[in-house]
Design goal:
By secondary structure, this protein is mainly alpha-helical. The chain contains two helices and no strands.
């Protein structure tokens, strides 16, 4: 054990808890935001795919045979 390790330990010899603990309400809000972002991203991908298919489809019909 180094000097730094022993200085970082608390009275019981264990490292103290660091970081932020979120409440249940904050965790639910985070999950809702993540779900909304995922759905928006999925919808954007579908729109881009459909636009691509429509644009390519019209060129396939008018192309040389």
């Amino acid at each position: 054990m180094t000097i730094i390790d022993s200085a970082m330990n608390d009275v019981n010899g264990q490292r103290p808890q660091t970081g932020i603990r979120l409440t249940e309400q904050q965790l639910r809000a985070r999950r809702a935001r993540s779900l909304a972002i995922a759905l928006a991203l999925g919808a954007f991908v579908v729109v881009i795919f459909l636009v691509t298919i429509v644009r390519l489809g019209s060129n396939v019909l008018t192309g040389p045979m």
